[in-house]
Specification:
The radius of gyration is 29 Å and the shape is rod-shaped. The protein has one domain. Strand 4 and strand 5 form a beta hairpin. By secondary structure, it is of the alpha+beta class. The protein binds zinc ion.
């Protein structure tokens, strides 16, 4: 290796050791070598992007739950206490999403969306119920 190559290698190694790229915009970072972002704006962009997917998921599930609650609440407030499963389905109810299950002392299980719930009476009929009691957390 001649001196030119040696010098180049030396410069290259030092340059790449110092040269750091911003994780957000890819721009060069000056200053401390432990910095990951060129600016606060880039730091915010980066973490907002990371959080966006999980935030979207929570927002979508919450939207489904709110829709389910609205369907149960409307039926209940119209005075309906016994409804066919297909009626809920036709209104866009999503049976996979509920907030909690309450089992009565007689062993009936109610699936709740917030304060409105139902239990399966058999033959695809459901009994609606409202329970606004404060939930006790363990
Ligand atoms: Zn940047």
């Amino acid at each position: 290796m001649n001196t030119f190559e040696n010098d180049f290698l030396y410069l290259y190694q030092n340059f790449s050791a110092v040269e750091k790229k911003c994780l957000d915009c890819g721009g060069s970072i000056r200053g401390r070598t432990d910095k990951k972002f060129c600016s606060d704006q880039c730091r915010n962009n980066y973490y907002n992007r990371l959080n966006r997917d999980s935030n979207n998921y929570v927002r979508n599930v919450h939207g489904l739950l709110r829709k389910n609650r609205r369907i149960l609440a409307d039926l209940y407030n119209e005075g309906k206490r016994k409804v066919h499963r297909d009626a809920l389905f036709a209104l866009g109810y999503n049976f996979n999403f509920f907030t909690h299950v309450i089992e009565t002392s007689s062993g009936q299980k109610f699936n709740y969306c917030f304060e409105y719930g139902f239990t399966d009476l058999g033959d695809d009929f459901l009994e609606l119920r409202q329970n606004s009691q404060y939930i006790q957390y363990q």
